[in-house]
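Researcher: We plan to redesign the surface later, but first we want a full-length starting point. Tokens attached.
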């Protein structure tokens, strides 16, 4: 009995001197270190180890990503490394500078239209816009709902597939040649047109303010061209030699996105060579794969390398 009383006294004493349980506000407000990259950038090596190409533009920011890191898991979640920067006229400014955010790991759930980003776990970044629609909390799972008519919705459309009303195909972004010019303020145009949001079009896909900007570009300025993989399919035409083909379409980054041409991209994965065939089956470009930031290299990587479930690999040759 005496031993039992001593045990009770010890338990009561221990409970008395235990630290108080932290409040939920303290837990949610505590800093969480980014497990992969420094945001804003602190490590130049994170930046130099990757191959950055333009992914999307809004009225005041540009998003770059490394297409060689693009992958999709069996649940339809795509992942890639990215960074974003302001759209400023800074020809003498290095791409890696104090104005960029990233590099960081970005994930998009194509099915549920949610996103996860390392930027959610850093301080000194803009607070996400509060909306009435339900969203998963930033603290906790880290997934938040992608809001319609935003730059992230445009990025999702590019990487998860752009659908058309009059066509059964779904196009997936591959490469953009050139950037939208920085349009000086026009007193006849409301500044609200240049917000980070998309505008309505006749297609089912959403576009950002780049379409509004495109309407302001004068006739003597050449609009950028972007390339998309049709249905994200890569066909193995010769399994023994590992020769693969993809159907690619090019569009002008203008109002309504007019189609420019269709191609068949053929990659010889063993010899590191490729060629581009026009709709008339004539060779447009042929030879060794180009540098990492070129359309040739990005297309070759997309056709020959493993991107998880992102690409639909088919075989119709029987070889």
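Model: Full-length starting sequence:
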């Amino acid at each position: 009995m005496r031993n039992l009383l001593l045990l009770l006294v010890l338990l009561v004493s221990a409970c008395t001197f235990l630290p108080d349980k932290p409040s939920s506000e303290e837990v949610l407000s505590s800093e969480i270190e980014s497990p992969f990259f420094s945001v804003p950038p602190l490590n130049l090596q994170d930046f130099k180890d990757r191959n950055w190409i333009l992914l999307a533009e809004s009225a005041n920011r540009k998003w770059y990503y490394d297409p060689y890191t693009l992958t999709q898991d069996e649940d339809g979640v795509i992942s890639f490394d990215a960074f974003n920067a302001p759209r400023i006229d800074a020809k003498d400014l290095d791409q890696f500078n104090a104005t960029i955010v990233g590099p960081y790991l970005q994930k998009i759930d194509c099915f549920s239209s949610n996103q996860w980003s390392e930027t959610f776990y850093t301080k000194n970044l803009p607070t996400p816009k509060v909306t009435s629609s339900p969203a998963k909390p930033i603290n906790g799972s880290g997934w938040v709902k992608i809001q319609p008519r935003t730059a992230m919705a445009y990025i999702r459309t590019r990487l998860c597939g752009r659908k058309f009303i009059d066509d059964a195909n779904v196009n997936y972004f591959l490469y953009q040649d050139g950037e939208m010019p920085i349009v000086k303020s026009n007193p006849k145009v409301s500044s609200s047109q240049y917000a980070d949001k998309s505008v309505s079009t006749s297609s089912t896909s959403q576009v950002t303010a780049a379409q509004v900007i495109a309407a302001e570009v004068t006739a003597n300025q050449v609009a950028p061209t972007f390339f998309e993989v049709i249905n994200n399919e890569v066909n193995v035409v010769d399994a023994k030699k590992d020769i693969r083909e993809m159907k690619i379409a090019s569009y002008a980054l203008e109002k309504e996105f007019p189609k420019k041409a269709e191609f068949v991209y053929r990659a010889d994965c063993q010899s590191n060579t490729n060629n581009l065939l026009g709709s008339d089956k004539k060779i447009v470009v042929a030879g060794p794969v180009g540098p990492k930031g070129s359309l040739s290299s990005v297309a070759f990587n997309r056709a020959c390398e493993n991107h998880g479930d992102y690409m639909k690999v088919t075989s119709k040759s029987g070889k």
